[in-house]
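BUG: 3D viewer hangs when loading the predicted structure for this chain

Environment: internal workstation, default settings.
Expected: structure renders.
Actual: progress bar stalls at 90%.

Input used:
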Amino acid sequence: METVGGRATAVPYKGSPPALQDVAAGVVPLMMADLAAARPLIQAGRLRAIAVPSAKRSAQLPGVPTFAEAGGPIFEAAAWQGVVAPAGTPAPIVEKLSQAIRQALASPDVVRQLTLQGLEPTGSTPDAFRAYARQEHERWGAVIQGKGLSAE
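Structure tokens produced before the viewer hung:
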């Protein structure tokens, strides 16, 4: 795998916790990790966050630069989640669910709980979410095809 200024070897792990423990112990030099799993080790001083893969700094790690700010390439790779319903769900039901979700995301308690899980909650409309999901599918599909990757 190509990296800035060198090469890296992908090391398969059965989940983030054992991989993070190996990074903290110096067995593996670095990894891309989700914030929810890495935050306790970062807060304990056992790991150092080097950069975040987003266009802007994380509200949860404001002192950590983006890849571009750290001198690397512009690199954005965010985990995202959304709520989906079966195809053909009537539009009024989809809109009612969307409104309820946006209302929940306006609640400080909900935002606090999601933030504790390493998420930065935002709400959108069904059309905006659909467009974003399509864009991500096309973007990462092109990367997968361009690198000749396949699932085993």
